[in-house]
Amino acid sequence: MNGYYKRTSPETAGEPVLVASGLRKTYRMGRVPVQVLKDASIEVRSGEWVAILGASGSGKSTLLHLLGGLDRPDPDGGMIRFEGRRVSDFGGAELNGYRNRSVGFVFQFYHLLPELSVLENAMLPCLVPNRWVSATLPLLAALIGGGVGAAIGSTFGVEILPTADAPTPSKIALLAVTCGVLGAAVGVVLFQIGQVLAERTRLRHGPQAATSRHTLEEFGLGHRLRHRPSQLSGGERQRTAIARALASEPGILMADEPTGNLDATTGREILDLLKKRHDAGLTIVMVTHDATVAEYADRVVRLEDGRVVETTA
User: Fold this and answer.
1) What long-range pairs does 96-101 form, CB within 8 A, spacing at least 24?
2) d(CA 15, CA 226)
3) What is the pTM of this model?
4) Paired strand residues for 299
5) By three-state DSSP, how is residue 45 classified?
6) What percent of the chain has pLDDT over 90?
């Protein structure tokens, strides 16, 4: 794995990595169904930069959300394949992995967490815990703590009980249960403390921190690592958002109007950053309403009224 993203092997370079066929998506406005996508189809090849160009309300953001697994098509509303597999066949954990590691998202409004620093925001995809591990380890800590507590209660019950109490088997058993419950609670608390300390160490010294720090420095934010989003300019916030999208080294970057909230000069700087990563092999799918922005792409897919009407190289 390189420092930027997961490369596609030379044997599959240039082959379709993401294919959507006949997508239909309908939302409800009160009781009124509104069909946003109408049999839209698109193909994205490895290493390609595709711009989806359309006016407001044409369905381009909806199409991007479907491609990225953030939403699903209508029942029988077409299909999406990633590396040959239907995304609809992904289970919950696999779909989460697809959204977290296979694709990265950049949005118009940044969506940075205000309580986190620039570095912490950029590392956010790497901090998402494994669901199985996060559910199992606390239970394991409780079982171990409870077992130790119960063993202490049953082994040393005679010494623990007051001298006036006769150490009957029922009292020893009750003491073992009580010590087991206390031990389980202590085990969970110690696990949580250890988890916090481990996360702090990973944030400061782990490989993800090094990768995110390198990306932020490359984006000209090396002096802003400990700043909060409220202390950044719009361009700096968007660069942080792009660094976050690249943190898990995805194969595809999905950008929804990445320059729509920026002035022309800052917007060009953001597009130049994307172009540098694209030139290194990153696949990009970008939504925009601006034909000038779309010129950065290798291919432009024009969307009108929920339908793909034109594709130009």
Assistant:
1) 96/128, 96/131, 98/69, 99/68, 99/69, 99/70, 100/125, 100/128, 100/248, 101/125, 101/248, 101/249, 101/250
2) 41
3) 0.73
4) 50
5) strand
6) 52
